[in-house]
Amino acid sequence: MVKEDSFVDDRLTIKLFINRMPAQKRKALLALLAGALFVLALAFLAGGIAYAGRSFLPLSRIDVTEILYMERDDILARSGIESRSYWMINKTQVRANLLAIAAIKDAVVEKHFPDALVIKLEARKPVAMVMSPTGGTGSLCYVDETGKVFEKGRGVSANTLPLVTDAKMQSLYAGDQFPASVVELLSAMSNISPASLSHISEIEINWKISGEYRLDLYDLIVYPRSSSVRVRMNPSFDDSYIRRMLLAVKTVEEDRRHNTDEIDYRSHDPVFIPKGGSR
Known about the structure:
Blueprint (H helix, E strand, L loop, with lengths): L3 H16 L3 H33 L5 E5 L6 H8 L11 H9 L4 E9 L3 E8 L2 E7 L6 E6 L4 E2 L12 E3 L14 H11 L3 H4 L2 E8 L10 E7 L5 E4 L5 H16 L5 E5 L6 E4 L5
Parallel strand pairs: 1-3, 7-8, 10-11
Antiparallel strand pairs: 2-3, 4-5, 5-6, 8-9, 9-10, 11-12
């Protein structure tokens, strides 16, 4: 057994050793010991604050506005909120995590003292569908007016949106971005009323020169729903243009004299292309 006197002797020995050191070395050693004690105290203090932060002012409410087409629990899980303490929430990091979700266009994260967190989300609004080659068979994703592709959402009916095809994209996955020329088309589509878009099944981008992505180097082949007649159109259009196009399709369907399966509507007057004819 070690006697208590031995500890006293050790302390006296260390004290005598320090006192016998040259003054300059003694000051340096004492400063080093003081710095070490200060760092150790800071470490204990930081640990205490972190522990107290997790238990002090716990969050009693997390409000999420605009749930999008995702589950609330999924949003919270992907937001990276690990602590349930008011003090431990990093608003900047939570917002960055939310914006990494393709379906979220913007996010605002607010801390309301003393125990509430409010997350306000702006969902991307789909204007068309695109085919994503996932799983080898392909699945439908949505694209908004900015050209951002995001996940299929359960809250939007796929039957009301046209399918955009041949957009010259190597892959179409959530988070992908369409080229600028196609974004102009999607922006025009965002200004078309849902009632008009609901009459269109597919919009095929017909490139005039392979590999080019300028707006003036492609036109559109539009396939109305419930009709075998396709329409060649300009990529710049508005709601009245779409309505006139649909009226031309209706004219062909109701008048048997029009033996055609395609209408060229790139000019002010529709041109009815006979079956087997050339444009």
